Amino acid sequence: MTTHPARIHHLNRDRFQKPAPNKDYVLYWMQQSQRAVFNHALEFAADQANRLGLPLVVGFGLTDTYPDANLRHYTFMLEGLAETRTALADRGIQLVVLKGHPPDVALDLGGQAALIVCDAGYLRHQRLWRGQVAKNAGCPVILVETDVVVPVAVATTKKEYAARTIRPRLHKVLADFLMPLPLKDLKHSSLNLSFDSLDITDPQAVRDTLSLDRTVPPVSRFFPGGTSHAEKRFQTFLANGLKNYDRHSNQPQTDDISHMSPYLHFGQISPLYLALGVMDVDPSLSDARDAFIEQLIIRRELAFNFVYYTPDYDSFDVIPGWAKNTLADHETDPRDHLYSEQELVDAVTHDPYWNAAMMEMTCTGFMHNYMRMYWGKKILEWSPSPKQAFETTLALNNRYFLDGRDPNSYTGVAWLYGIHDRGWAERAIFGKIRYMAASGLERKCDIQAYVDKIKHRCAAVKSKNLYEI
Q1: What sequence ranges are listed for the domain Photolyase/cryptochrome alpha/beta (predicted)?
Q2: Residue 374's pLDDT is what?
């Protein structure tokens, strides 16, 4: 077996100790990890299918009521699923896509399954879905963690205070999980099995049948969905951007970043693939490599730790007591500027740097991480109350970012209000919450070059000219 035992969790072992007999296939219920390579859940399911002498079927439940998702998100996801379908078929594995509530789809397809394998999303609704399937399935249900490098509970069994507390825990076990994941040959094909599956070879046609919020347009010009696009972009980053990564993390006028967060969010690329790729670079790039690993594993898995051990991760109530107190002390401080949510969306504030960041978000579905911090801090400064600022920031984050609605983004919003941070010098409105100023951007980077870059990029969208990020 090529899957580390710590990744594997039996969800209903109290009811089932072995696969159901006289069934037609093993089912991998794919939901979070939407890829055909570097997928521990898929390879574990393939191994089980071979052991049982059965074909492997992959099932996906396509719901048009996914929380906070819109046309932008569905377009990217369906483009990726179309590519995944082809890659799976090349291995003799049929991808069955059914419209419906995902746990209902899993239970429907699982009726003829000897075993159901599922991947691991860590948000509340994803955990609820798995619980419903485990409770009602007529066969064993096994969860395999594959969207983190180190399984969440292996890293630590409690909510960590900050990166400095989880970092040594992750480094202690990291070598055990930085292992390649070979593809397993299937002994039996499932391509000849008959299912009433949606034809996703034309993602746009499928998308047009769904009842979606269509007010946020797709961004396929900048981020086409699919594993091959993620891999191509990552290889370009390794060749051109990594050498500057550690020095340019606060230089938004540059593009020396991986742009992997949308692909990671939809499970179209594996964090293990990225980690192994960057570990294999020239030793002279060790500083840049370490900086990338810090973001990919330490900071990202700190975010997964936060949502896993914090049930109300999307609530203002999650911020630490010291942060609540200091914000409450300054809630009635005068604000020089107050903006409505629509004014923020329209990027019509007095701050040209912030407006450029908002334009990058609405035009491309992405924002340089350094600007994300500044963007969020200013919403706190320009809102009538901290709670309203939190809710506005989260709503915009989930609506426009391709990687919104993700453990990383929920944690990023909470960080703006003190999660994983400490108290700083006290000031108006912010109290002891960390502050960011336009003068800091001007001092640390070529912020006008960033503004010009985004104006050019958004103009390309409006004119429908192709533009490569």
Answers
A1: 24-152
A2: 98
Give the Cβ contact number of residue 145 at 10 Å. Answer: 26
SS3 content of the chain, % helix, strand, coil (to 5): 50, 5, 45
Single out the residue of 232, 222, 42 nearest to residue 120, CA to CA: 42
Per residue in 303-321, pLDDT (tens digit) is: 999 999 999 999 999 999 9
Q: Quick check: is 82 in a domain?
A: yes
User: What does the pLDDT read at residue 2?
Assistant: 75
The whole-angstrom separation of Cα 42 and Cα 267 is 12
Q: Please report the pLDDT score of residue 468 as a whole number.
A: 45
Are the C-beta atoms of 251 and 445 separated by less than 8 Å?
Answer: yes
Q: How many alpha carbons lie under 13 Å from residue 209 in its C-beta half-sphere?
A: 13
CATH number at residue 176: 1.25.40.80
**Distance from CA of residue 446 to its chain's centroid?**
29
**Pairing label, strands 141-144, 8-10:** antiparallel
pLDDT at 467: 44
Cβ neighbours of residue 8 closer than 8 Å, sequence gap 6 or more = 44, 142, 143, 144
Give the domain extent around 114: 5-147
Closest CA to 132 of 147, 118, 152, 144: 118
Q: Model confidence over 175-217: pLDDT tens digits?
A: 999 999 999 999 999 999 999 999 999 999 999 999 999 999 9
User: How many H-runs (helices) and E-runs (strands) does the chain carry?
Assistant: 20, 6
Same-domain check for residues 63 and 174: no
* Residue 143 sits in the same domain as residue 153: no
CATH of the domain at 327: 1.10.579.10
**Cα–Cα distance measured from residue 454 to residue 346, given in angstroms and rounded to the nearest whole number:** 15
What pLDDT sits at residue 469? 41
Residues in the chain: 469
For residue 156, the model assigns a pLDDT of 96
Residues 6+ apart with CB under 8 A from 254: 244, 248
Intervals of the chain under pLDDT 70: 1, 464-469
The helix-helix angle for 102-110 and 124-136 (nearest 10°) equals 30
Cα angle value 146/150/156 (rounded, 5°): 130
CB atoms within 10 A of CB 156: 18
Sequential DSSP letters for 397-420: HHHH-TT-SSHHHHHHHHHTTTTT
3-state secondary structure of 53: coil
